[in-house]
């Protein structure tokens, strides 16, 4: 997959927005069954944290979802609920089921693509390619000359 990263990059990030939307709901509402890396049990979180400190990278990141503190918890919950209620109402009252599904997926994919573009530019992917091309030219000129 790494060898074909250029092919998979944008299609994969189209779906990233869907995952991020689900994770934001799970985080704000403390839904541990939906939140990746969340645990309900503080003992499990301590054990995994200890494993990470000991160098076991397979332990993964964990969050004790019961201890998550949000500064503006009610505001975040309210804003998320209002956003999804508005999206739902827009689709239910103005579209048939097929059109609503297409609209929802297009909206999520468009958001995912915009995030992918910002993510790609922000992580200096273009500079790597430029450096590699100039390095290849230098090596070619050394081999010929």
Note down, in words, how this protein is organized:
It is built from 5 helices and 2 strands, in the order αβαβααα. The model has no long low-confidence stretch (mean pLDDT 77). With 145 residues, it is mainly α. α1 (5-28) packs across α4 (97-122) and α3 (73-94) crosses α4. The longest helix has 26 residues, at 97-122. It has a two-stranded parallel ribbon.
Can you give me a brief rundown of this structure?
The protein is mostly helical and 145 residues long. 72% of the residues lie in helices and 3% in strands.
Helix-strand blueprint:
Blueprint: H1 5-28, E1 38-39, H2 42-53, E2 63-64, H3 73-94, H4 97-122, H5 125-144
Parallel strand pairs: 1-2
Helix pairs in contact: 1-4, 3-4
Structural class: mainly alpha
Radius of gyration: 22 Å
Q: What's the main sheet like?
A: 2 strands, parallel
Global outline: flat
Q: Distance between the terminal alpha carbons, to the nearest Å?
A: 37 Å
User: How many β-strand runs?
Assistant: 2
Strand arrangement in the largest pleated sheet: 1-2
Q: Return the string of H and E elements.
A: HEHEHHH
Calculate the mean pLDDT score and round it. 77
Q: What fraction of the residues are assigned to beta strands by DSSP?
A: under 5%
Q: In percent, how helical is the residue content?
A: over 70%
Number of structural domains: 1
Unreliably modeled segments:
none
How many helix segments? 5
